[in-house]
Amino acid sequence: MNQKNNFITLIPIISLTLIILVCLPLSASSRTLSNTLLTSTSFSATTHQQTISRFIDEIKTIQNRTLQLMQLALENPIKDLSDFKRNINLVNNSATILRRDILEYQRTIPTDSIEYRDILLILNALNYSKNALYYLDLFSQTTLSFEKSKLLEIFYQSRLQSIDALNTIENLIL
């Protein structure tokens, strides 16, 4: 019975010792990791800002080209639909290449960082721009006034959401 009581007394001591031994290395490694992230983040803040600014400029270019195409579609009936669709595809290809660049950059950013938030906002802005481009394409193919009106409304909503996302990111980092 005495051995059983000694063993019961030793269980909390052994458990406490194991907890302390396990937590010390974890605590040290997490401090090292957070210091590395802080150093990495502060070191690359300028580079991150420049990269985000480049992404913003490219999205604005896509937005402007999309708006120009919509203005052309509104001012004149589209005479050469294949040429118009070719222009839409050129803008879409630019957006696809930009998305690839953004996603490649996103892989280098820790998911729990402010920089990651910036990338998500940039992706939102690009998605809204691509959505506007999609509705421009639908607009160019339809002939019914009611459908054109609805597609035009959705086009401008997507455009405004993209602009809002870009304004948000610009206010946060620039």
Characterise the protein shown here:
The chain is mainly α and 174 residues long. The protein folds into two domains: 1-43; 44-173, Four Helix Bundle (Hemerythrin (Met), subunit A), CATH 1.20.120.230. The chain is 90% helix and 0% strand. The chain has helices at residues 2-43, 45-75, 81-106, 114-141, 145-173. Residues 14-43 have low confidence and may be disordered.
Give a quick rundown of the structure.
This protein is an all-alpha fold and 174 residues long.
Task: Please give the structural blueprint.
Layout: H1 2-43, H2 45-75, H3 81-106, H4 114-141, H5 145-173
Helix pairs in contact: 2-3, 2-4, 2-5, 3-4, 4-5
The DSSP helix count reads 5
Distance between the termini: 73 Å
Mean pLDDT, all residues: 82
- Quick one: CATH superfamily of the largest domain? Alpha-catenin/vinculin-like
Radius of gyration over all CA atoms, rounded: 27 Å
CATH architecture of the largest domain: Up-down Bundle
Keywords:
single chain; Four Helix Bundle (Hemerythrin (Met), subunit A); 0% strand; 5 helices; mainly alpha; 90% helix; 174 residues; 2 domains
